[in-house]
């Protein structure tokens, strides 16, 4: 694994705003070995600095603990310095990548340009488990106990998961684990199939609802359809997240559709907005006008609903 270089990252937030990062960890992996690990508290931006009791209960970080800590401007500089030109990896990139991007936005900073890969999606692709939470995957791979929701521990375990899966797959480069689509790839090539499978797979081959999902989740037992591109993840990864929450993936809007997830960067959508949208949106609008109940979910809402627990 001499060419396996990446930096695993994990963040914790002070409240429901993804921008409220209060702890960061980075684990440098170079040539298939952990060479450095750092964890530090972050003073959230003043606009998102409140600590919610729920978040404090999850990670145990309080306002006193971040008093005098570096702000996000200094923290993202440290993070990008540790990452260098190599990819970032997180367990559930949909959360960590979005949190880093939003923290940069509220601080008026450009987000890191490093490639960002998801260890959760990799685990779902390679491991047949009922649940793919971080503790579940770590236990399955025999990685030992760790303190979940401590950024340093979570980043360390994420790095170890990737290294163990790379060992099992005989992967010597991140592109062997997360292949990039080569320019002009033929329709039948492995890389082409990897990236287009959400579109080419038959409905019966889409990710199946988890039997261990929370029955109280809004996606549970519902037929869920995606329209438009998501900024934070690929379509197949989004379908895996839907299935993990107990949703049934669909490729088109039908009379069974109960949830429509709307991408393309939109942050607010009402039923009337669908009338002039994509073919799926127009179809959903017609069904809703006829009395069918369809929950409309934007990407920020989708990320909140699928955030790791």
From TrEMBL:
CDD domains assigned: BRCT_DNA_ligase_like (cd17748), DNA_pol_III_epsilon_like (cd06130)
Domain Exonuclease: 5-171
SUPFAM superfamilies according to UniProt: BRCT domain, Ribonuclease H-like
Classification via InterPro entries: BRCT_dom (IPR001357), BRCT_dom_sf (IPR036420), Ribonucl_H (IPR013520), RNaseH-like_sf (IPR012337), RNaseH_sf (IPR036397)
Pfam family for this entry, one: RNase_T
Protein name, per record: Exonuclease domain-containing protein
Lineage: Bacteria, Bacillati, Actinomycetota, Actinomycetes, Micrococcales
